[in-house]
Amino acid sequence: MVKVLLLGDAHGCWKEVDDRLREASRTSGVAAGIQVGDLGINRRAIQTFAQRRGRFALPLHVIDGNHDDHAYLARALRNGEQQRWASDMNLHVQPRPSVVEIGGIKVGFLGGALHIVRPQYHGMLSDAPNYVTKQHALAAASLFDAERPGLIVTHSCPSGIGIRMQGHPDLKWGVHEHVVRAGIDPGPEHDRGEPGLRVLWEHMHHRPRLWIFGHFHTYRRVIVGSTEFVSVDAVTPRRTAQQLYWDTDSMCLVDA
Questions:
Q1: Which end of the chain is more exposed for a tag (fewer CB within 10 A), N or C?
Q2: Could you tell me the CATH number of the domain that includes residue 231?
Q3: Beta-carbon contacts of residue 213 (< 8 Å; ≥ 6 apart)
Q4: pTM for this entry
Q5: What is the pLDDT of residues 81-109, one digit of tens each?
Q6: Residues linked to residue 107 through DSSP beta bridges, in sequence order
């Protein structure tokens, strides 16, 4: 059995992420971590962590959220810098889309999410949009149907399919200004999410046993069809989040 620690949005709290990996390795036999995006990846964060800690205590598999530096990530993927992060820092950034085997089980990754505090970084202007495009979604559907991962990891969740995620009331203006007015449908107010991930859900025949995401900074578990969707709480210094572990044998969430 391989036990994996599941970590939510960190927004630059890399020390806290590493501390949780170290503690989980010591007390619960965790062998790796999966972080659901918004780790806060940018050049300064990479340099600071490398200088202060060197490397994460365990292999940490991450995706991009909407608060990572997408242009920097795209350059780092092209020039091989991301490969050096994996070897030198134990930081494994998974591109959109990708499938990686962890503990003998295939895991599907697809990063990206809509901004709600500033305009979208559109694909027509950049090769590194912050959100999941239709092209990303269709590529992921094809890949995941072929590879059939037991776990899928995204930053947000599919909109309007019954997961029933709701944004914070204080963010309603941002959703309207930067999403709805931009011609993007985030789903009904009682069932928000990523339209690109809804495209993935509708085009993908495969149904994973488990699908984890972050973005909403809250813990929630909902079953849609044969898939359990789990929203992973955020990682912050002043907040005790629900500690979540994934067991690769049972492919279920387990206690420590």
A1: N
A2: 3.60.21.10
A3: 36, 153, 154, 155, 156, 157, 229, 230, 231, 232
A4: 0.95
A5: 999 999 999 999 999 999 999 999 999 99
A6: 100, 151
